[in-house]
């Protein structure tokens, strides 16, 4: 296992109309949609890993395993956390969690899981991406 700096982040989001299952095409209800929750989880992993990267490095998501456990209504504030759980070479695996925020702080667990990212040289990575076909 490679020694890497500790990496963690906490972000807060407020569920808006554009974040609902109905808006993102993952259902018909006006509650936080799973695709948006996943995007928030990825944002938290990026916020955690970015300070540990050197010039020219970035990271790409390679594996996602999440559970969406409870609803969040429009207007609900949600705290999303990511904490480095494992590192090996360029691979970084993060534990992620999301909780609805109430008047007394974090409350109901909305979702949790693991997201794996791999550190890459941004320029080299993009040079390997083919041009789209016309």
UniProtKB/TrEMBL annotation:
Gene3D superfamilies according to UniProt: Hotdog Thioesterase
Stretches assigned to the Fluoroacetyl-CoA-specific thioesterase-like domain: 15-122
UniProt-listed Pfam families: FlK
Classification via InterPro entries: FlK, FlK-like_dom, HotDog_dom_sf
Organism superkingdom: Bacteria
PANTHER family: BLR0278 PROTEIN, THIOESTERASE DOMAIN-CONTAINING PROTEIN
Protein name: Thioesterase
């Amino acid at each position: 296992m490679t020694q890497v700096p500790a990496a963690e982040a906490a972000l807060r989001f407020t569920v808006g109309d554009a974040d609902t299952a109905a808006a993102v095409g993952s259902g018909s209800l006006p509650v936080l949609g799973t695709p948006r929750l996943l995007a928030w989880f990825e944002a938290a992993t990026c916020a955690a890993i970015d300070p540990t990267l050197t010039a020219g490095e970035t990271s790409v998501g390679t594996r996602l395993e999440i559970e969406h456990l409870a609803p969040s209504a429009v207007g609900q504030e949600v705290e999303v956390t990511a904490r480095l759980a494992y590192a090996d070479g360029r691979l970084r695996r993060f534990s992620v969690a999301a909780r609805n925020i109430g008047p007394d702080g974090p409350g109901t667990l909305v979702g949790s899981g693991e997201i794996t990212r791999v550190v890459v040289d941004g320029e080299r990575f993009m040079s390997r991406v083919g041009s789209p076909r016309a």
